[in-house]
Specification:
By secondary structure, the chain is mainly α. The protein has 16 helices and no strands. The chain has a domain of about 200 residues: MetI-like fold. Helix content is about 80%, strand content about 0%. Helix 9 runs antiparallel to helix 14, helix 9 packs across helix 15 and helix 10 packs antiparallel against helix 12.
């Protein structure tokens, strides 16, 4: 049966997994005889509105970058243009496309800041976070853009659902069965899985350290000028998709896992830096202010007043990003960054479907294992 608290699994990312923001109020409303819908709308959601807005826009950024990755395998859009430009060594075109990525990310960042500011002002005024005419107009425009996208892309869903298409898809998937489970191939796949895991762990760890260092000035703690400069750096880092970073790093540092680690670290630093900065901005100021009033230096007040209140949330962000990076680490192999992706690319190029299906199964198992480990750690944070 549905409960408002079923959202806690999704809200764990934006609340740090501690369940403290909004859940207490929601439980109080239920105990007072309120309905579950009232507990959700007036108890749980207002407490996480700012973080939920920030994370929703971030997921939109992820979707934009994912569409770029799809373009590298012929799915159209900026990704396909980027792939063609890099293959032709046309640096001018590639730079123009990267600037377009940056513009999209800057637009998303501005949108997130605008809506969080609106919600913050409503919360400060002591009433429900009601949106004014301008935010509602922006939301309506975004909704219209989504509907227009279906018509403009001309998806051709009818052809996809035809009997001929179904038969073709069935034949294609049948060619991947049975899996190659020979001892020699399993050993090779196992080595690729360990390499992929190592790339994701090292890339995420390096990114977490860099993101925390960049989040401090990006949160506005050292002046507006440094905040804007740091946010521009973070936007630039995350505006370039991991696959593009991997291609550039493979050219600069050579093929292999090191290029994959650098690619993940560069992109994830921008992603986590933005999320960490907004978490620090949204952190309650009372503990820090109390220490400052007692004469504590600003740095010490931050370490013992602000940082402990957001540490579970920062760790939850890092762990969730690790879940995403384990999948991305496998994809980076398609441009020579090692791991399971490189194995899969080679086998698909040789039309070895049985071997390729074993690699795909290994990717699935590795992703499930990492997701379970990350979810367990995030629950323990609570």
């Amino acid at each position: 049966m549905y409960k408002p608290f079923d959202l806690s699994e999704h809200a764990a990312v934006v609340t740090g997994g501690n369940g403290g923001i909004g859940l207490g109020m929601a439980r109080a409303l239920l105990e007072a005889g309120g309905s579950r819908l009232q507990a959700l709308c007036y108890g749980l959601l207002p407490g996480v509105a700012q973080e939920l807005t920030s994370y929703t826009v971030y997921r939109w950024e992820c979707a934009v970058r994912a569409s770029v990755v799809m373009g590298f395998v012929g799915a159209g859009g900026l990704g396909q243009l980027m792939d063609q430009s890099m293959k032709m060594l046309n640096g001018g075109e590639a730079a123009s496309i990267l600037l377009t990525f940056l513009a999209l990310v800057l637009a998303a960042d501005a949108l997130s800041a605008f809506f969080r500011r609106q919600l913050g002002e409503a919360g400060t005024a002591g009433h429900a976070a009601a949106l004014g005419p301008l935010p509602l107009a922006i939301l309506a425009s975004l909704g219209g853009a989504v509907l227009a996208s279906f018509a403009w892309l001309d998806l051709g869903l009818g052809a996809l659902l035809s009997r001929a298409a179904a038969a073709s898809i069935a034949d294609f998937f049948a060619s991947f069965w049975p899996l190659d489970l020979s001892a020699g191939w399993l050993w090779k796949v196992g080595q690729g899985a360990l390499e992929t895991l190592a790339i994701s762990v090292l890339g995420t760890l390096l990114a977490t350290v860099c993101a925390l260092l960049l989040a401090l000035p990006a949160s506005g703690r050292h002046g507006a000028l440094l905040e804007q400069a740091t946010r521009f750096v973070l936007n630039a880092l995350r505006s370039v998709p991991e696959l593009v970073w991997a291609t550039l790093m493979a050219l600069a540092a050579g093929l292999g896992p090191f290029a994959g680690i650098l690619a993940l670290a560069l992109h994830t630093s921008g992603v986590l830096g933005r999320l960490f900065a907004e978490a620090l901005q949204n952190a309650p100021a009372t503990p820090r202010d109390a220490l400052l009033e007692a004469g504590t230096p600003a740095g010490v007040a931050f370490l013992y007043g602000s940082l402990p209140t957001v540490t579970p949330q920062l760790l939850a962000y890092a762990l969730y990003r690790w879940e995403m990076n384990i999948r991305m680490a496998a994809i980076l192999g398609f441009v020579g960054a090692g791991g399971l992706g490189q194995l899969l690319y080679v086998e698909l190029s040789l039309f070895h479907q049985a071997q390729a299906s074993t690699v795909i199964a290994a990717m699935l198992l590795l992703s499930v294992a990492v997701d379970a480990a990350s979810a367990s750690l995030r629950r323990r944070l609570g």
